[in-house]
Description:
By secondary structure, this protein is mainly α.
Amino acid sequence: MDYKPWQHQQKAQMESEVQKRQQAELTTNIASGATLSLVFGIIGLIPLGIGIIFGPIAIVLSLGAKSRIQENPGLGGRRRATAGLVLGIVAIVFAILGLLLRILA
């Protein structure tokens, strides 16, 4: 087996770049409301009819976070805001379906 010092150096550089990227991801500023919209979207899925309350809150928070992210590209949290939006919509749909099932049953 041939020992090639340049391979060791390349490996060390790649590891350094990966560490820098991971550190950058940890220090990224998250748009306010992105995480909260995700949390409210998840809470809205609890089958107690509370989706009708938490769903719209998740939607409003996620839309606000998305607009802040669009204004300031340095902010993170776009995926969280999108997930909060989707879960908020799903929570409202499930809550309405649950209410209809209770009324019709």
